[in-house]
């Protein structure tokens, strides 16, 4: 039977693949966003700046600090890449989300598994409508000239069947849409940064983190992680498997209190605190924590020990906009 030998949780935000001197590009988009989510409510940029004035966030925004934080993030990514290489997995199951990269408003499944033969990772078409600071990060998730990777279809189909038997109706993605040649950035980041372009066969697993009305609850994500654990370890194949979460932590507005609850769950294996967070917290970018929860559920089910490599809240404005970066892994017994 297959064996899970490693779990990883990593942020994947564009700031990680952007020179720190350019982190301020995204502030233009922050200021234009009239629905910045923070603790269950929406705010304008100016409202948030006033609300969080007492936190002194303006003092945490400078090119010098951005350089230090960028270096710390790169060191953490390098550490995760080493952990991945040292574990020597044969296959990876990657939990991420789609942001209208594969799906459209016409069809957004709550959970989905890609089970086609080939995973495409080519440049997206230039789009002047994309927010500043997005395209500059392209090389962090798509190699020069693009790439094609092998999907482990046997495990993908086994995961789909096992999920059905345990009460999860999961969508099966058998091919990319005709006009799409790029796996969502949540997965491209893992292939490039964690696998260092030495890509093992993988199974992309999708959670609808972003889009109402069919976002799964934190509890449902945790239970799906238990299903993933059971499916992998019942797969009749003598292979080593890594399970990787890509996304988060809190953004586009940073909330360090929420992130600490998640990281405490990684270390303790107890996800009750995460499940107790109100669903109103899991909106906008912070909803990507729901990419982590299935993997946390998998690791908790197996009793694997969590390690926090680093946590770096990368603020880019006095309103608290930015991306809190988290880097963790699980190995061995707790």
From TrEMBL:
Keyword set, alphabetical order: Dioxygenase, Oxidoreductase
GO terms of molecular function: ferrous iron binding; protocatechuate 4,5-dioxygenase activity
Highest taxon of the lineage: Bacteria
SUPFAM superfamilies given in the database record: LigB-like (SSF53213)
Residue ranges of every copy of the Extradiol ring-cleavage dioxygenase class III enzyme subunit B domain listed in the record: 76-301
InterPro entries: 3MGA_Dioxygenase (IPR034938), Xdiol_dOase_suB (IPR004183)
EC identifiers of the protein: 1.13.11.8
Top EC group: oxidoreductase
This protein's name: Protocatechuate 4,5-dioxygenase beta chain
Organism: Pigmentiphaga humi
Upper lineage: Bacteria, Pseudomonadati, Pseudomonadota, Betaproteobacteria, Burkholderiales
Gene responsible for this protein: ligB_3
């Amino acid at each position: 039977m297959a064996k899970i030998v490693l779990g990883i949780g990593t942020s994947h935000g564009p700031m990680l693949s952007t020179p720190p001197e350019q982190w301020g590009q995204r502030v233009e988009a922050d200021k234009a966003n009239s629905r910045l989510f923070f603790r269950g409510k929406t705010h304008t940029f100016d409202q948030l700046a006033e609300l969080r004035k007492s936190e002194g966030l303006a003092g945490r925004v400078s090119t010098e600090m951005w350089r230090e934080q960028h270096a710390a993030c790169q060191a953490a990514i390098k550490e995760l890449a080493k952990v991945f290489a040292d574990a020597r997995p044969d296959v990876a199951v990657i939990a991420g989300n789609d942001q209208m990269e594969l799906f459209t408003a016409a069809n957004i499944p709550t959970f989905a598994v890609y089970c086609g033969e080939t995973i495409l990772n080519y440049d997206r078409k230039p789009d002047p409508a994309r927010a500043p600071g997005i395209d500059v990060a392209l090389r962090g998730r798509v190699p020069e000239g693009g790439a094609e990777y092998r999907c482990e279809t046997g495990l993908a189909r086994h995961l789909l069947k096992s999920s059905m038997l345990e009460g999860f109706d999961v969508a099966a993605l058998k091919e990319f849409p005709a006009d799409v040649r790029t796996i969502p950035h949540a997965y491209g980041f893992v292939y490039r940064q964690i696998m260092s372009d030495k890509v093992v066969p993988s199974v992309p697993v999708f959670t609808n983190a972003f889009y109402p009305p069919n976002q799964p609850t934190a509890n449902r994500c945790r239970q799906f992680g238990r299903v993933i654990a059971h499916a992998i370890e019942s797969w009749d194949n003598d292979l080593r498997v890594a399970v990787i979460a890509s996304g988060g932590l809190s953004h586009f507005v940073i909330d360090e209190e929420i992130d600490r609850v998640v990281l405490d769950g990684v270390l303790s294996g107890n996800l009750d605190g995460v499940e107790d967070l109100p669903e109103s917290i899991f909106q906008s970018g912070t909803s990507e924590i729901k990419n982590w929860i299935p993997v946390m559920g998998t690791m908790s089910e197996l009793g694997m020990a969590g390690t926090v490599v680093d946590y770096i809240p990368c603020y880019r404005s006095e309103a608290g906009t930015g991306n809190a970066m988290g880097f963790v892994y699980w190995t061995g017994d707790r």
